[in-house]
Design brief:
Length: about 280
């Protein structure tokens, strides 16, 4: 099942994508796609609906973040060996965690605004895992049962802010619009193995990143289990699980985003998101 939220920012309605790729309205069945309805029982009730009987949404509509009220937006750094190597960083012994401010979260096709003074804005395609049920002290074996589903995340990063403004990476990761998420939340039953998903990112039609989640250093299950030993994961929390090689910072010379650039990100089974880069007004 592919769950979406669509409409004007701040006024999104719940919906789903049917088997023919059409957008269907879920407003008569749920008020929103939020953490409180991502448990298995709630999702099963939605699966039981006859999608063809739901109102079809016609025309072009904006897609928002597929889950509302995200509590924590967690990101795992250097989780692909070849990305760590291109960044000149040692292979981590444990998952590297940083947080992205919730004010950075934006729709999958919303513009990405480079902040004032940006010289080094960069792209990062990542697999996002959305927590469906509360997880604390869970084992790797049971970790994925706490995941409601998966989505695409673009961990947009301002490298100068990230590396040279002191403190941790959050400064360069949390600029407004630096967290495009979506286009939809694909429930766990449709992604039986999150460690076999091909992923790719283009800038202006040129392939920059191409990888597969099978090359992660830490699997989704390992990440969920590890984080749950440190703090409680709540329904609706998002974990962005790291990026493969091909980021602008790793190029020789480095290549960064400019106003007018267009990023397009695809992960098999999870759809495509597309953002145009603009200057922040």
């Amino acid at each position: 099942m592919k769950l979406v939220r669509y409409g004007i920012s701040g006024e999104e309605k719940p919906g789903l994508i049917d088997g023919d790729g059409a957008l269907r309205d879920l407003s008569s069945h749920v008020a929103d796609i939020s953490g409180s309805m991502l448990d298995d029982a709630s999702l099963d009730r939605l699966r039981a609906l006859d999608a063809s009987s739901l109102p079809k949404v016609e025309g072009e509509v904006r897609l928002g973040v597929p889950v509302s009220g995200i509590g924590k937006y967690m990101c795992i750094g250097l989780n692909y060996r070849d990305h760590a190597e291109e960044a000149g960083m040692p292979i981590p012994e444990h998952p590297i965690l940083f947080m992205k401010a919730n004010s950075a979260i934006s729709g999958p096709d919303d513009p990405v605004a480079m902040p004032r003074g940006s010289t080094s804005s960069d792209w990062e395609i990542e697999l996002g895992a959305v927590i469906g049920t509360t997880a604390k002290y869970v084992s790797e074996a049971e970790a994925l049962s706490h995941v409601a589903g998966y989505c695409i995340c673009n961990d947009v990063s301002e490298r100068h802010f990230q590396i040279h403004l002191s403190g941790n990476w959050t400064k360069g990761k949390s600029c407004d619009t630096f967290g495009p998420t979506g286009p939809w939340l694909v429930t766990r039953d449709e992604i039986p193995d999150p460690q076999s998903l091909a992923m790719r990112l283009d800038v202006n039609g040129e392939r920059m990143q191409e990888g597969n989640t099978r090359t992660m250093i830490f699997t989704v299950a390992e990440i969920v289990s590890h984080l749950s030993q440190l703090f409680t994961l709540h329904p609706g929390d998002v974990i962005s699980t790291g990026t493969p090689p091909g980021v602008g910072m790793g190029m020789k010379p480095p290549r960064y985003l400019q106003a007018g650039d267009v990023m397009e990100l695809t992960i098999d089974g999870l759809g495509t998101q597309r953002q145009k880069v603009v200057e922040d007004a």
